[in-house]
Design a protein that fits this description.
The complex is a heterodimer of chains A (428) and B (163).
Chain A (H helix, E strand, L loop, with lengths): L4 H9 L10 E2 L5 E4 L3 H12 L14 E4 L9 H17 L3 E3 L9 H7 L8 E4 L13 E4 L2 H10 L5 E2 L2 E8 L8 H12 L7 E6 L1 H4 L3 H9 L8 E3 L4 H10 L19 E6 L6 E3 L7 E3 L10 E5 H4 L2 H11 L9 E5 L3 H9 L2 H8 L2 E2 L20 E4 L15 E4 L2 H10 L9
Parallel strand pairs in A: 2-3, 2-5, 3-4, 5-6, 8-9, 8-11, 9-10, 14-15, 14-17, 15-16, 17-18
Antiparallel strand pairs in A: 1-7, 12-13
Helix pairs in contact in A: 2-5, 6-8, 11-13, 11-14
Chain B lengths: L1 E6 L6 H4 L23 H6 L8 E4 L11 H8 L3 E4 L4 H10 L2 E4 L10 E4 L3 E4 L4 E4 L5 H8 L3 H13 L1
Parallel strand pairs in B: 1-2, 2-3, 3-4
Antiparallel strand pairs in B: 1-5, 5-6, 6-7
Helix pairs in contact in B: 3-4
The chains are: A alpha/beta (428), B alpha/beta (163).
């Protein structure tokens, strides 16, 4: 019987020729990523070694990546102290893939990993962040785990007790219409299958719309796979993956592109038609509460947030700048923009994008996660409505349970910034 | 027997269980104070009004969203148990890893104040006699529970392989 991509990856990483759905395997890890929560991982890691008489050493410092992004620069003494503790650990253990709070290397973990070429097709990637699913965009099996599970990975170099997940094949035929993006596609998918429609399963993406999507869009797509409950999202690696890794991520090594077998078995096949897709909005307070933009037009908003690991990439900023060029953000709106990494920030500076955004009235912040999850800057007032290109709209998400968050694409956010109400970019 | 102290719907996110604004707090000894920080139950927990072993009943997809382990450690700190129609994957794994007692009970319906008995294969609501079948946790999780959590489980493997 044929295998899906994730089955192939798990078989290789577990030293087997074949794996079955539900079978328990212990795949070797190729990349283990953490952010500030490495502080907790470190505690748990030392706890594992407690009483063993063994010196606590990570299994392979070359396979660990640590990126500060959730609260940068530190918003409190507590965070600063946690970050200091991680810095000391990284130095002690010789972890080189460490991205500190610096303009020449920093950013959001789910952008830092791809743009530095740390993720390759066929890898097993784990991260102490639920949006680790992002890296499936490059053909890796990438999934989120908790801090204690990461401490176990740091110790043994493999993930214990993984049940081989079933796979849902998502086929997106046709091409996306103008003003409709990968974000709209993934919101529509989540709306269709629901917040637990892919629970404990993998979403494997196929079809013309996926093949014609650049890696930036594929990262957006896989980023939000977890919002349908998926363990991972994955796009079979192809010529676009190779182009991205060679040209943008500077990877020189030989790449192994694994694709699913034609007779692979899928739990379910979901089909979408890209051509008929409209811009989409996820209404509060659930990501699967998705409607076409027409259902939201005219809703007044007080804050627009553009950026995050979902939609803070260069083409996202470009499209926003194009819409805002020479115009002004409505007086009733605060517009916050945070690029996904300093590399993107620098590219946007060099192309004049940042100047265009600032002149229009946007506030361009440093790369980081803060506003998306309400931990650092951009908090909402009671009764505020935010429109964001981020990934979650749960009650309390942006730091205030008495506010609302709507999710959308960068184009919808930019069009809405000009009008102060949710606006269909096709009608500008 | 354990009293139901909170009944919640489906898709309860980790932002409800442990809001992001408290994420800089990581120690299991400190996270319980922020459990369900935006719900009325928060005050009762911190006032010491909720006895250990009390039950939270929820719908499907409990613990969806962020991988933050605080969402499991804060409930474990109060020794709460969660009986839900289903759990999100990362939360379920975190809970098992830390020893938080979860029960998958796809048909569960109960009211606040009900007394539940969590028997081997079913949950019995002693307030009205209704019975609900329990779905066992995935077998890969059971081995970790049996070892007393992921830390002792990993420690044992470490000693076997490097000791």
């Amino acid at each position: 019987m044929g295998m899906t991509i994730v089955e192939k990856i798990l078989a290789r990483a577990s030293g087997r020729t074949q794996v079955q759905i539900g079978e328990v395997v212990e795949p070797r890890v190729d990349l283990a990523m953490s952010h500030e929560n490495a502080a907790l991982v470190i505690n748990q890691f030392h706890e594992i070694y407690q009483g063993t008489g063994l010196a606590a050493r990570v299994w392979d410092p070359e396979k660990i990546a640590i990126i500060f992004d959730h609260r940068v620069p530190a918003e409190s003494a507590k965070t600063a102290t946690n970050q200091k503790k991680v810095r000391e650990f990284v130095a002690q253990h010789g972890i080189h893939r460490f991205h500190d709070i610096r303009g020449d290397e920093g950013g959001i973990c789910h952008q830092i990993l791809p743009e530095n070429g740390y993720v390759r097709p066929g890898m097993v990637v784990v991260g102490t962040d639920s949006h680790t699913t992002t890296h499936g965009a490059l053909g890796a099996f990438a999934f989120g785990i908790g801090a204690t599970e990461m401490a176990s990975v740091w110790t043994l170099g493999r993930v214990l007790n993984v049940e081989v997940p079933g796979t849902i094949k998502v086929v997106v035929k046709g091409r996306l219409a103008p003003h409709v993006s990968a974000k709209d596609l993934v919101l529509a998918l989540i709306g269709q299958i629901g917040a637990e429609g892919a629970s404990f399963k993998v979403l494997e993406f196929h079809g013309e719309a996926i093949r014609t999507l650049p890696t930036s869009g594929r990262l957006t797509l896989c980023n939000m796979a977890v919002e349908a409950g998926a363990t991972a999202g994955i796009v079979p690696a192809d010529s676009e993956t190779v182009r991205y890794l060679r040209q943008e991520a500077g990877v020189k090594e030989v790449l192994q592109l694994s694709i699913p077998d034609p007779d692979a078995a899928y739990d379910q096949i979901v089909e979408l038609d890209a051509k008929v897709l409209h811009p989409q909005i996820a209404f509060p307070h659930k990501v699967d509460n998705v409607h076409p933009v027409e259902a939201a037009e005219g809703i007044a908003i007080q804050q627009i947030v553009i950026g995050s690991c979902t939609n803070g990439r260069l083409d996202d900023l470009e499209v926003v700048a194009r819409i805002l060029a020479g115009k002004k953000v409505a007086r009733s709106v605060r517009m916050l923009i945070f690029p996904a990494s300093f590399r993107i920030y620098t590219q946007a500076l060099e192309r004049g994008i940042i100047a265009e955004l600032v002149r229009a009235g946007a506030v361009v912040m440093n790369p980081g996660c803060g506003p998306c999850l309400g931990v650092h800057q951009g908090a909402l007032a009671d009764g505020d409505r935010a429109l964001a290109t981020t990934n979650r709209n749960f009650k309390g998400r942006m730091g205030n349970p008495n506010a609302e968050v709507y999710l959308c694409s960068p184009e919808v956010a930019a069009a809405s910034a000009l009008k102060g109400v949710i606006t269909d970019p096709r009608k500008l | 027997m354990a009293k139901v102290i909170l009944v919640l719907g489906s898709d309860i996110s980790t932002d409800i269980i442990y809001p992001g604004r408290y994420m800089a707090t990581v120690l299991p000894s400190e996270t319980p104070q922020y459990a369900f920080a935006d719900l009325p139950i928060h005050k009762r927990l911190n006032a010491g009004e909720i006895p250990p072993g009390s039950v939270v009943v929820a719908g499907k997809n409990f613990g969806c969203g962020s991988s933050r382990e605080q969402a499991a450690s804060c409930l474990k700190g109060w020794e709460l148990r969660v009986v839900a129609k289903g759990f999100a994957r990362i939360f379920l794994q975190n809970a098992v890893n830390l020893g938080l007692h979860l029960v998958i009970c796809p048909e569960i319906e109960a009211g606040e104040g009900d007394e539940l008995e969590i028997a081997g294969e079913e949950v019995i609501d002693r307030s009205n006699g209704r019975r609900f079948a329990i779905t066992p946790l995935p077998k890969a999780r059971q081995a970790i529970i049996d070892a007393g959590g992921l830390i002792p489980y990993t420690r044992r493997l470490l000693l076997e392989e490097k000791g």
